[in-house]
Every structure is written in C-alpha cells, then in structure tokens.
Amino acid sequence: MAGVGTVDSMRTAFGKTFDNDPGFLNTASIGVPPRDAVEELTAAVERWRTGAKIPDYGDHGDIAKQAWARIVGVPAETVALGGSVAQLVGLVASNLPDGARVLVVKQEFTSVAFPFAAQEHRGVKVSEVDGAALASTVDGHDLVAVSVVQSVDGTIADLDALRDAAKATGARVLLDVSQAAGWLPLDLSWADFVVGANYKWLMSPKGASWLAVAPGALDSVTPHNAGWWAGEDPWTSAYGLPLRLAGTARRLDVSPSWFAAVGSAATLPWIASLDMAEVREHCVGLADSVLAGLGLPPRGSAIISLDMPGGAERLTETGVTFSQRAGRIRLAFHLYNTAEDVALVLRALRSE
C-alpha cells in the first residue's frame, strides 16, 4: 500500500493529488479525478465560454482512445469511440445473426445483458448461468458476454478458463472492463470485443466509452451509428455521399463528447503509465484488510460486498461514502484510498 499519503483533506497517490474526503469508497459508481485533470477540464470550460475550436476535442478523444487501448492491452487501431457501454454493446448485439445464442452470468450488469435481450424479436436467445459455471457452459453458444469484474459484488471472471473454452468451441467473447480497467492488470487482445466506460476507475467525466473489435470480428459489425466522425478524416467526410468510412475500428466511432474527451485525455495516459500490478496490490490490500478486520476471508478484488444488517446506517453515520447493490453494502477501494478509510469502515461495522 505504498505510494499514498494524506495531508489534511488532500491525498497524493501514484504521483497525483486528489481531494476526496476520508471514507470515499464509491469508485465502483464514480471515481475521483486527479486535481490536474480538474484544472484541465476547468480550462476547457473557459475556452468553451469564450469560443472553443471543435478540432481540439478530436485530438483529446484520440489521446484518450490510445491510452485506453494500452490499459486493456489491445491495439489502438482496433478501438472505437462511443458514448456509453450499452450503446456499444447494442452495436454488437444488433449485428448478431437471427437466432444467435448468447451466454451471460446471473446478476450481470444490465448494460451488458439488456442489449442482447432486446434482440429477442429476432430469435436471439440469452441464457444466464452462475459465474462459476461460465466456462463449462460456453459450448452451444455463439457469444459469451461478461464483465471482467462484476459490478454487484466484485467477483473476477476466470478469463483463462473462458479464453480456453471459447477457443475450443468457436464462441465469440465480449468483455466489459468498466469495473476492472484502472486497477486490474489486463491483456485482452484475445477477446473478440472489449468494452468499457471512462468514469469509475478511470476517473474521468462520464460521457465516453470504448469498444475494441478484434480484426477478425470487425467485418461482422455494420456501423449502424455511422456519422461524419466515422470517416478516416472526419473533415473530408462531413457532407454528401458516397459512404466513405475508415478502414479501422474508427468506422464505428461517434463524435466525442467534448468535456468527457478532455477529462479522459488528462487522466488515461497517466493511468496507462502506472505499474498496474502495484495498483492492484494497493487496492486489493485495502479491501482485504477490511475483510480481515471483520473476520472474513480475502477475495482478491478491489470491490467487496457485505451483508450486514444495520451496517449501511452505521457507515453513513461514520461518514463513509458507499453504494448498495442487490441489498448488500458495496465498498470499492482505489489508488487514492488509504488505511484511514479502512479504519473508518471497521469503526462503523465493528460497533455494537
């Protein structure tokens, strides 16, 4: 848990300064930005107030896209920019053949599951299975869609087993990294589709998501959202036919959300430069310290889920910021959290 210090309400972590209050353990819902990213965003708002240039936002979008590719371990040219995870997953779902069979885990985040379920009118069938049985159930399905880390409780998917099962059966795989990218080391170039949001663990203003499409899968995705930004050079594809799209995954791009692009470009390159094994050690060490303090076994995840009657009220009284999912307390530890946060949680949950 080295690399983090606390001075009054200001915290330094991995070379950046943060202003999160003690007890903020809700990164799984929304992350805290580094102070310099806030300064960049504030300056962008000021430029907007006095007359910004739209091309600037495109540069920011490309910088963020390239950094996200490094974070998840995929080639940058395979990555497309979108507005949300559900929109990008919907693009994959709408391109499935009629009657396709999709496998998801029970209690999967609905931005991953709903886009496929919405294709029922075309005969697309979505089956749910317990996470532990995912790899052994792949056979007979055309696509498996799963979060690398589950939003509801922090469970980490067995990616090695899933990769082997998909290779053996020919099933395609879609992975959502929204609860993993930013704290968990990732090397996902083997997956057919990788999708993730820019906020939460990536600590950027909501409004951008990315979809990596393996080269062998790109031809199977019709760019239903094609617009001017999907061209090789948007400034030469802004008017008139014929259709002229980029030859890479950029053909799936939508135009960037301005301030999401600025914030992402300020934060993601720094995250991409970190030793993610060190970040994981820090985050998981804090989460497992809470579990140990409560007499529970370690889980090896930055997200923990607790079933403790009355615990939510005690955490709130102690000043802990958290979320509740599926009737349980959800705590999420990121690089700006410290042992002080662990102590606050244990003070609340150990009280009689």
From TrEMBL:
Signal peptide: none annotated. GO terms for molecular function: lyase activity. InterPro entries: Aminotrans_V_dom, PyrdxlP-dep_Trfase, PyrdxlP-dep_Trfase_major, PyrdxlP-dep_Trfase_small. Gene3D superfamilies: Aspartate Aminotransferase, domain 1, Type I PLP-dependent aspartate aminotransferase-like (Major domain). Keywords: Lyase. Residues 95-294 form the Aminotransferase class V domain. Pfam families: Aminotran_5. This is Selenocysteine lyase/cysteine desulfurase.
